[in-house]
Write a structure and sequence with these properties.
With about 100 residues, the chain is of the alpha/beta class. It has one domain. It is about 20% helix and about 25% strand. It contains two helices and five strands; from the N terminus they run E-H-E-E-E-H-E. The termini are far apart.
């Protein structure tokens, strides 16, 4: 699976996004993580938003598996768990999954 990674502008970051993405990548060595580009053949988009505002525009992306958002380092394990489950589910569905502070 090709996972596009997109970062917000970083104006109000509340967690260490570089550490979070390293953990996600190491949890899924079978997937190819790339910098998100609208013209690529990505299967899903992982948005590394620095805070719960999540102001990143993702409307230009057409992805077979949808968009995952991480807006808090506290929910990193939830993202890893959901990506694990998501990989075993029907690949035709599109959805937006957003993990924020509870």
């Amino acid at each position: 699976m090709i996972v596009g990674v997109k970062y917000c502008g970083g104006c109000n970051v509340h967690y260490r996004r570089e550490h979070a993405i390293k953990e996600i990548i190491s949890a899924f060595p079978q997937h190819n993580f790339v910098i998100a580009q609208t013209s690529s053949d990505m299967d899903l988009l992982l948005v590394m938003a620095g805070c719960s505002v999540a102001c990143v525009n993702v409307s230009e992306y057409e992805l077979p598996l949808g968009v995952f958002w991480l807006t808090s380092g506290e929910n990193l394990q939830k993202v890893i768990d959901e990506l694990t489950l998501f990989g075993s589910k029907d690949k035709e569905r599109k959805e937006v999954i957003k993990f924020e502070l509870d």
